[in-house]
Amino acid sequence: MIIEPIISGVVAKSAHPEGCKKAVDDQIAYVKSANPIKNGPKRVLILGASSGFGLAARIALTFGGADADTIGVSFERGPSEKGVGSAGWYNNIYFKQRANQAGRRAINIVGDAFSQDVREQVIEAIETYFEGEVDLVIYSLATGVRPKGDGEFWRSAIKPIGEAVSGASINLETQQWENKLLEPATDEEIEGTLKVMGGEDWESWIDTLVNSDSVANGFKTVALSYVGPEITHPIYLDGTLGRAKVDLHQTSHALNLELSNFDGNAYAAVCKALVTKASVFIPGLTPYLLALYQTMKEQGTHEECIQQMQRLFSSKLYGSETVPVDGERLIRMDDWELQPEVQAKVTMLLDQMNESNFKQLGDFEGFQQAFLNLNGFGFDEVDYSSPVDIEALSRLKP
Ligand code: NAI
């Protein structure tokens, strides 16, 4: 079977296993040549480990100097009559192969991170493979739904709060700029987003680990967040997602107090805006991403998830005696994104950007390439005309 990229709006409906392997290998090669993580953790749990920041964190911690063993939780689908399966499914498989070849443990748990069942599987894996304790938990889930437990769901909405906001999205299927008016969220949507993307589930995970005596002395936990510059605040920080992130920041303070019993710490790390499966979904954010990629590449400060995560662990979380934080106790991985010279250029580009010039003014090519790469497409080294053996792929287990 030949696998072609199938894109519906901003969602990829197909993935190329060989390209996913290449993406994992490229990230491993990067961290092996980067500033290494010193005194890093050895036993790590990553919630949301199969793509974006979570996968990058897993690769950095295993191959970027810490030599960590990892348990990765993700929600992905394998090959079936419906299709070849998701990119994250193959990322799990190929990451594990590479980790095992390097003598590292890599346990993949594919299921709903909100569920009790997955919590139990994780505790059992910590008992079996980590001698009962974990040194670091990365919370990197991005999703739209969380089960309430009674057959009902909380659903997150990406909307402004209070007033309608206009913004553009770029449809990756048609490559067209689409102007949108986003109506303000209802109270139910605000509440749903808080439940799905706020700090409650992170706190519940850490409580579960504490209650099962699975937390090592000196334990750390980090959840990933976004803040962004003022131009993005109407759709992000002042909207439903931003409210959930502020809740996550507050949770980091509560958890930090709780973890002092273990000489431990909890942080929210504010990351850079990047093209991931989750972020292309945020209406109004794409023009900003195009302008940001263009500017940071020009200025030589552009990073992808893997550079962000390697820098987080090597120079912030484990790099020095004290973890550098801002006045709100946040780790700022968006420090380069928010530099005044970057934002001045981004604002200038956004002022001029419209439906007819966004491909010239912004880094549309880089944006599109990054999106294709997430799904295993667009790599020169992969022969996409060569048929893929689905039977053989079906036998690979995460
Ligand atoms: P992503 O979509 O690439 O990764 C999400 C991960 O969560 C995947 O491993 C997926 O399998 C897993 N997942 C989703 N639902 C799950 C469930 N019910 N059970 C188990 N696993 C589940 O997303 P990305 O962009 O890496 O986002 C991760 C975090 O980083 C989010 O909190 C996001 O807000 C934050 N962030 C993202 C930025 C961006 O520009 N992409 C910027 C700053 C922060």
Automatic annotation (TrEMBL):
**Binding residues for NAD(+), per the UniProt record?**
48-53, 75-76, 112-113, 141-142, 245, 274-276
What enzyme category does the UniProt record give?
oxidoreductase
Domain (Trans-2-enoyl-CoA reductase catalytic) spans 84-318
Q: Which UniProt keywords apply?
A: Fatty acid biosynthesis, Fatty acid metabolism, Lipid biosynthesis, Lipid metabolism, NAD, Oxidoreductase
- From the UniProt record, give the pathway where this protein acts: Lipid metabolism; fatty acid biosynthesis
Gene3D superfamilies attached to this UniProt entry: NAD(P)-binding Rossmann-like Domain
Catalytic residues at 236
> What range(s) does the Trans-2-enoyl-CoA reductase-like NAD(P)H binding domain occupy?
2-81
Q: Name one Pfam family in it.
A: Enoyl_reductase
Catalysed reactions, semicolon-separated: a 2,3-saturated acyl-CoA + NAD(+) = a (2E)-enoyl-CoA + NADH + H(+); a 2,3-saturated acyl-[ACP] + NAD(+) = a (2E)-enoyl-[ACP] + NADH + H(+)
Domain Enoyl reductase FAD binding span(s) in chain numbering: 325-388
**Residue sites binding substrate per the record:** 226
Q: Which domain of life is it from?
A: Bacteria
Site: Plays an important role in discriminating NADH against NADPH. Where?
76
Does Cell membrane count among this protein's keywords? Answer: no
- EC number per UniProt: 1.3.1.9
What interactions and quaternary structure are annotated? Monomer.
Q: Which family does it belong to?
A: Belongs to the TER reductase family.
This chain's function reads: Involved in the final reduction of the elongation cycle of fatty acid synthesis (FAS II). Catalyzes the reduction of a carbon-carbon double bond in an enoyl moiety that is covalently linked to an acyl carrier protein (ACP).
Protein name as catalogued: Enoyl-[acyl-carrier-protein] reductase [NADH]
Gene (UniProt): fabV
